[in-house]
């Protein structure tokens, strides 16, 4: 009986060793110096179908100028120096399409105080010039001013600075 139990123990140990060897994790045998595989070429994706235009290009402010008088085409000669009784014209050049867009101009005095603010509705399908005129019956206080333009409440164009002497 002793012979059988030793044989059984050796046989069990041998089977356990074989079982463990079969479960052992496979070692990584990759060559770390190997070059990466060349990329596989794939067919280009089909281009997206063109989307129908749902709205025209929005209105865009292309130029802002400040002057004293407007020509027949609404353009103004830019002026940086005004007198206290001068009319201040903010000329706004736009491109694009607009239906009742709110185009406005705001004048601020050197300390940030609002010296005037006006707006107009803009309806256009192309280039357009909108002029907004400011007057002050009491005369403009001397100092530095800034003209800012907004389209639908958002800042647009480049603010212009000028002075009243």
Structural class: mainly beta
Q: What is the percent of helical residues?
A: 10-25%
CA distance, first residue to last residue = 125 Å
Q: Give the strand line-up of the largest sheet.
A: 2-8-7-4-5
Please tell me the overall pLDDT. 80
From the alpha-carbon coordinates, what is the Rg to the nearest angstrom?
40 Å
Number of strands: 8
Largest sheet: 5 strands, mixed
Our count of helices gives: 1
Which stretches are poorly predicted, pLDDT < 50 over at least 5 residues?
25-32, 34-44, 49-55
Shape: globular
| Order of SSEs | HEEEEEEEE
How is the secondary structure organized here?
Blueprint: H1 2-23, E1 60-67, E2 81-82, E3 88-95, E4 98-109, E5 114-124, E6 128-134, E7 143-151, E8 154-164
Parallel strand pairs: 2-8
Antiparallel strand pairs: 1-3, 3-6, 4-5, 4-7, 7-8
